[in-house]
Design a protein that fits this description.
Length: 325
Amino acid sequence: MLRFLARRSLGAVVILLIISALTFFLFYSIPRDPALLACGKNCTPGALEIIRKNLAIDEPIPVQYWHYMVGIFAGRDFAVGPCPAPCLGYSFVDNTPVFETILDRFPTTASLAVGGAAVFLTVGLGAGMLAAWKRGTIVDKVFSSASLVLSSLQIYFLGPLVLALFVYQLQWFSQPKYVNLTSDPVGWFVGLIIPWCVLSVIFTANYTRMARSSMIEQLQEEHVRAARAKGMSRSTVFFRYAWRGSLIPIVTIFGIDMGALFGGAVITEFTFTLPGLGRLAVQSVLNTDLPMLMGVMLFAATAIVVFNIFVDATYAFIDPRVRLS
């Protein structure tokens, strides 16, 4: 098991290095002069020269990339001040450290991702398993039809509709907002319950269909039919033999979804004006803030890679044969 995870972790490090190199070359090779973007509108020749020196613009792109990677592990010095490791640079807009800004926005994104995942996993898997258990009945048809309808809805349509109905008209909930979990757990829960539910609608529909089809497929496997032939009860066969095997495709999609959500739920954060990583990425694009945008992209890529390692580890736990592959 440890060798299996070590191989996956080593591959993840290589992937992150490739992503960081491609992202750096894309951001710092295409602009004619990144120093002009960092300097801003009221730029003086002296300030521009200092920025060029700090960013090593006058050096070849591979050397610039080397300085950037060294800064991540050892820190760097910039015109606005020292940048301790892990250093992702300073924002072109307000000269704030990129890594500190990401850490400040991350709790919002993490709260949104974890809460939404709890909702769509509980409801989606429960509905999918129940539909497979009641295959061919009215329950199966209702859940299958509902999942098709819900999967066609979009957050930018459903979000304003829910706000108008439950917040502004009926006033059952307050305006969604992020509150620190440690300082006010109740306020944290109440402020995010609407974004969680709206975010989970499409995911719930997808996981319902996936859980149903995966369970039905597992029920046709030879080891499940052998368990039935031995006289085991339907519930024992369903939960002890079929359920575990049906989790493999679900774990795959869940790892990808969680990695994307931890990198920033862009539409949800913009719909409910939540200060998360997705909103930060869009603002960085609008402000042409290359260091901030690159930092968010590297953070999102790291989240996706980490969750893929988690998926591989879960595979090895569910099916020991994976460890030998």
